[in-house]
Amino acid sequence: MAALKDLFTRQLRLKRGEQGLRIVLEGTAPAAAAPAAQAPSSDKAVDASRLMRSELTALLDRAAGSRRVVRHLAAIEHGLVRKDPTGLFIFELTIERLQTALREFDTLAGATASVGLVALRGQLAAALAAHERRQHSTARHQPISSFLTDEKLRVDEVRHSDFEKASEAWLAPAPGGKPPPKP
Shortest CA distance to 2 belongs to which of 48, 37, 52, 33? Predict the structure, then answer.
């Protein structure tokens, strides 16, 4: 909890190092931000979504040009910033986009176990599981056999004489037309 408090009360700085750009916390909390940080948060979901968004942004910033390569994850970052900061829009994504975003996330994040990224991965996995449950329940309500539907083909056996009558009627000449060719 202290790490979350530090994240929201201290200044973030970009530092260039041997491993590339890093985000580091520097200095002490500004005086205006200290009382707000000490007040209990009334909306934990907003705090968690801010953490998800900031850590996802930091993750994408670590790799140069990553937003062009991992487009689904970049779209989720954009959605967290512009569309819905709580991340509920993730549940509206198609199952294919969720699978791709989750694959991109696992590739890019690796073994990173920060609180915001774990929460984001959990939300992606929960949305994917919800889609799969919906598909499973939809498939369960669909009939297994075509005999259980109203639109079915009816096949009856007929005598040979009935078949001959139907065949003659089929091959009869049209009124005012030419007779059909004989087979």
Answer: 37
Residue whose pair of structure tokens reads 């009627």 in the numeric block:
169
For the chain, domain boundaries: 1-40, 42-140
- Residues 6+ away with beta carbon under 8 Å from 129: none
Look at residues 166, 19, 76, 26 and name the one whose alpha carbon lies nearest to residue 9.
Answer: 26
Evaluated on CA atoms 142, 145, 146, 149, the torsion sign reads: negative
Structure tokens at 142: 């669909």
Q: Which residues contact 102 (CB under 8 A, 6 or more apart)?
A: 121, 124, 125, 128
Which residues does the chain have with pLDDT short of 70? 1-8, 12, 25, 27-46, 138-153, 174-183
Sequence-ordered list of residues with C-beta below 8 angstroms from that of 14, at least 6 positions apart, any chain: 21, 22, 23, 24
Q: Three-class SS of residue 177? A: coil
For 12, list phi and psi in degrees, rounded to 5: -95, 140
Helix extents (H) in the chain: 2-9, 33-38, 44-62, 66-69, 71-78, 95-109, 115-141, 160-171
Pairwise CA distance, residues 46 & 168, whole Å: 79
pLDDT value for 147: 62
